[in-house]
Amino acid sequence: MNMTTPVLDSRTADIPDRRYFLQTLLEHAVHAQEHNQKLALLLIRLDRFEYINAIYGYESANILVYEIFCRIKAMLRAEDYLAHTGEGEFGLLIPNVLNAGHVLLAINKIQRDLGKYVDINGDELSLKVTIGASLFPEQASSPSSLMQQADLALITAIETEQRHTIFTEKLMQNVASEWGMADEIENGYYNDEFFLCYQPKIELKNGLPYGVEALMRWRSPSRGLVPPDQFIPVAEESGHINEMTWWALNTALREAQAWPVELWGNLSIAVNVSAKMLHHPEFVDSVLSAVSIWGNANALTIEVTESALMLDQERSFKALGQLKDAGIHISIDDFGTGYSSLSYFRDIPADELKIDMSFVKNMLANQTDAHIVNTVIDMAHRFGLLVVAEGIENQQTYNALREVECDFGQGYLMGKPLRHEELIAWINNHDPLQFSH
Ligand code: C2E
Ligand code: CA
Ligand code: CA
Predict the structure, then answer these.
(1) Computed from CA positions of residues 128, 235, 219, 309, in that sequence, does the dihedral angle turn out positive or negative?
(2) CA dihedral over 382, 385, 389, 390, signed as positive or negative
(3) What gap in Å lies between CA 215 and CA 418, rounded to an integer?
(4) DSSP letters along 64-129, please?
(5) d(Cα 151, Cα 285) in Å, to the nearest integer?
(6) Can you tell me the distance from the alpha carbon of 297 to that of 290, in angstroms, rounded to the nearest whole number?
């Protein structure tokens, strides 16, 4: 086989670049086809390379590329081919692989043996790479589609925060379905296909409703009723989540105006806000302007997940602190699934914690989960926070939570998410003693 001689690249001494990589890919593909072999293409991208470039400059970034190139090269066999295919990205061709398992071994080896740190201008930087891979001719039918598939696998790995992804047909279908879904969400938003349901939150000791949580629903003409766990991540990815949250916030506050005052008194209305929205520069202003339109800041609760908060703790705490100062209540959702420390409890700008459903569901059967529930309630109370347990599905769990002085509860036992009109009927028929007897 006619192997390509590495050609000097002016920036990084003796590293072949993308042009030579594509040329070699073509030759390897022909060879693989002629000898009935499989060829793997790996795209290896340095995490945060743009930042390194911006902070340390072009020269240092080039030295880093050279260093990584040498480290990967040292792990390879003579017949493997490595090139610098893009900004902080390396292409690797591994001829004569057996199957995807074989490729996974190579990926693991690179990620394990690359080293944890690299020295740049005397700074020790932690080093991480994300890898996308595809196989020829198993997955791709041509060299160019092999490159596209590895690219898609790499993008998927980065977006889903996995360290590596190997291309499969299923991945392609998922990506295509998500792309289609993003457009449909946009159309659906303008065609009024979204609506809110409200799930009651109950005070456990007396069974009285103290608020509701607004949960988004999407009735798509082609897909039917799509669960929020499916469309919210796509809307986050495509950026539509901003308009949709804005819509949910205003719709919930508007619909609440129609609730009979004598029944509702000061019921709180909770709206979920996802990570992207929380970190949006206009987030605080948009919430404040919504409550100024509807005039009930004290009735509003913003629910943010613990993990969204932890993504950028400083910024999250600042934004939530501003809302709290304006009288809006803050609730930390899915609590227990993130990484909380004692100091976190002390500083958290919140009014309530919602214990994640997974602990509540298992608390009767599992000692550890019961212990976590108890500890969260105890700690939260010490720091002046109220506690909501979500996912209460039976009376025993309700009783156990009331026993350990959990303040509020939400769950199918007391009420499922309901349409606005159904909610009013629910509240009229609700008997507080039914569960709290
Ligand atoms: P979440 O905020 O933790 O909402 C609680 C979920 O648990 C809801 O699912 C609710 O219907 C369900 N649930 C409540 N009680 C029970 C129970 O007793 N048993 C069981 N098995 N489930 C119960 P839903 O409505 O499908 O929402 C799922 C997630 O989607 C929400 O989790 C939230 O993260 C997200 N979501 C929903 N609406 C919105 C929204 O308007 N904006 C944003 N950003 N996210 C939303
Ligand atoms: Ca929630
Ligand atoms: Ca939750």
Answers:
(1) positive
(2) negative
(3) 9
(4) HHHHHHHHHHTTS-TT-EEEEEETTEEEEEEEEE-SHHHHHHHHHHHHHHT-SEEEETTEEEE--E
(5) 38
(6) 9
Regarding the beta carbon of 274 and ligand 1, being less than 6 Å apart is answered yes
What does the radius of gyration of the chain's CA atoms come to, in whole angstroms?
27
Q: Which of 200, 42, 27 is nearest to 110 (CA)?
A: 42
What gap in Å lies between CA 281 and CA 55, rounded to an integer? 23
Closest CA to 52 of 43, 41, 63: 63
Residue type, 90: F
Nearest to 59 by CA among 12, 123, 126: 12
pLDDT at 351: 96
Best substitution site from 232, 273, 392 to test ligand 1's pocket, by max atoms within 8 Å of Cβ? Answer: 232
Gap between the Cα atoms of 248 and 295, Å rounded: 16
- Pick from 348, 323, 324: nearest CA to 335: 348
Spell out a b/e string for 115-151, using b for 16 or more CB atoms within 10 Å of the CB, else e: eeebebeeeebebebbbbbbbbbbbbeebeebbebbb
Rounded to the nearest 5 degrees, what angle is found at the Cα of 44, between the Cα atoms of 7 and 235? 135
Q: In a 3-state reduction of DSSP, which class is residue 419?
A: coil
Q: β-strands 329-335, 117-120: how paired? A: unpaired
Q: Which residue is associated with the tokens 């303008």?
A: 190
Q: Give the distance (Å) from ligand 1 centre to CA of residue 188.
A: 20
Residue minimizing CA distance to atom 7 of ligand 1: 391
Q: Going by DSSP bridges, is the β-strand pair 123-126/117-120 parallel, antiparallel, or unpaired?
A: antiparallel
Report percent pLDDT > 70 for the chain. Answer: 94
Closest CA to 94 of 79, 73, 75, 110: 79
Over the stretch 218-270, which tens digit does the pLDDT of each residue have?
Answer: 999 998 999 998 899 899 888 899 999 999 999 999 998 888 766 656 789 99
| 126 beta partners | 117
- Which ligand is located closest to the Cα atom of residue 334? 3
Determine whether the shortest distance from the Cβ of 336 to ligand 1 is under 6 A. no
CB 87 within 8 A of CB 64: no
Closest CA to 309 of 270, 289, 339: 339
Q: What is the mean pLDDT of residues 198-226?
A: 95
Q: What is the pLDDT of residues 385-435, one digit of tens each?
A: 999 999 999 999 999 999 999 999 999 999 999 999 999 899 889 998 999
Q: 300 in helix, strand or coil?
A: strand
